[in-house]
Specification:
The protein is α+β, with helices and mostly antiparallel strands. Helices cover 22% and strands 36% of the residues. The chain contains 6 helices and 19 strands.
């Protein structure tokens, strides 16, 4: 009995060693037992009863190992060294994954963003570009900040970043050829998402399908700029419509010039024109739009940019407005223009939920069918 017990202990130690050396997979037990049994050289007469006991013990050990690994990820009970190592794995360090922007979250989940690990360190602070995505409507870049061990700051990365400059294939982007930078928060103070778009619908040139983007930015308290090169490629796979449908209300004309539907963005380009010299129906916030599919689902606004077209003798306002993507390709899109309601002091009127009150303009509403062949 003593000999058999020592033999089992020795065999169990061998199995534990194999488990530790086997990469974590979905079926840990089957993979480990297969590897163990293929290398098991005990005589057949001694294998039968020990294998049954060993398989049960292996299952317990393996399940425990998997549970511990899961707890490590969930609870964060890891050493700084292990944490740094895990951050090298792109899927465990996605800034897009933790944003409230459903489009960027989908870009990470569907694997259509480009995973990167481009970093620069100055004076103990490291900026790391984790990923980037471009869908023909907007470019988004995820950035993380890392400090020396034991050092930290309560100031967010978004607040610390300043003087953001971009080069596209070596040429500077400025107010004449891109929208400017939008910032989105992500999982914590040490991460931020930078976004921008071209001005192709507002007199500017479109971005290429592929390009090299150079980001240069400074961090508060650090004189040397952080410069990083980022490869960018258009993900394609989108619907592009140019309905050019107009509606009029009083002295206002609203035209839907373009609709682009991608896996990460719903982009609407509008043209707003005054038909006479008077003011718009609302001379403060202007006419805004909400978007709905045929089932009444409304994607949330992300951001937008616009400018007046003055080079053609008009003062038309061209707007590119970007919303979250639809979960599935809609059969039709309904554009519902609206204005905000203000109180006597010029502030928003608020509803019972503290949200600004709006008033839809039915005369300007438009429904555009989506051609599935596009």
């Amino acid at each position: 009995m003593d000999t058999r017990s020592k033999l089992e202990d020795k065999e169990l130690a061998q199995v534990e060693k194999l488990i530790r050396e086997t990469p974590l997979e979905v079926d840990l037990v089957q993979r480990t037992m297969s590897k163990y049994e293929s290398n098991y050289n005990t005589k057949p007469s001694k294998k039968i009863r020990t294998r049954k006991n060993l398989r049960q013990r292996v299952m317990i050990i393996t399940a425990s190992a998997a549970m511990i690994f899961s707890l490590i990820i969930v609870t964060g009970l890891i050493s700084p060294t292990m944490a740094a190592t895990m951050k090298e794995v792109p899927l465990l360090s996605s800034v897009f994954k933790f944003t409230r922007d459903l489009g960027l979250h989908a870009a990470n989940e569907k694997g259509i963003s480009t995973k990167l690990n481009t970093s620069v360190t100055h004076e103990g602070v490291t900026l790391n570009v984790t990923e980037a995505v471009y869908d023909g409507t907007r470019v988004a870049i995820g950035i993380e900040r890392h400090h020396k061990e034991g050092e930290n700051t309560k100031e967010s990365l978004s607040d610390q970043i300043s003087k953001i400059e971009f080069l596209l294939n070596g040429e500077p982007l400025n107010h004449t050829n891109f929208s400017g930078v939008f910032r989105q928060p992500s999982k914590d103070n040490n991460s931020v998402i930078l976004e921008f778009a071209d001005l192709k619908n507002q007199g500017g040139s479109p971005f290429p399908k592929q390009f090299s983007l150079t980001l240069s930015t400074t961090i508060t308290g650090i004189s040397e700029p952080f410069k990083m090169d980022i490869p960018v490629s258009d993900i394609g796979n989108y619907v592009n419509l140019q309905p050019n449908i107009s509606r009029k209300y009083k002295n206002n004309q609203l035209t839907i010039e373009q609709i682009i539907l991608t896996p990460i963005t719903t982009s609407i380009t509008t043209r707003k024109a005054l038909l006479d010299k008077s003011t718009s129906v609302d001379n403060r916030g202007g006419i805004n739009i909400a978007v709905f599919d045929e089932q009444g689902r409304e994607p949330r606004l992300v951001h937008g940019n616009g400018r007046r077209e003055t080079n053609k003798g008009t003062s038309d306002l061209i707007m590119d407005v970007r919303f979250h993507p639809f979960e599935t390709l809609p059969k039709a899109i309904t554009i519902k223009p609206y204005i905000h309601l203000y109180d006597g002091e010029g502030s928003y009127q608020l509803d019972e939920n503290g949200e600004p009150k709006i008033q839809y303009i039915p005369e300007l509403e438009m429904t555009i069918p989506i051609n599935l062949k596009e």
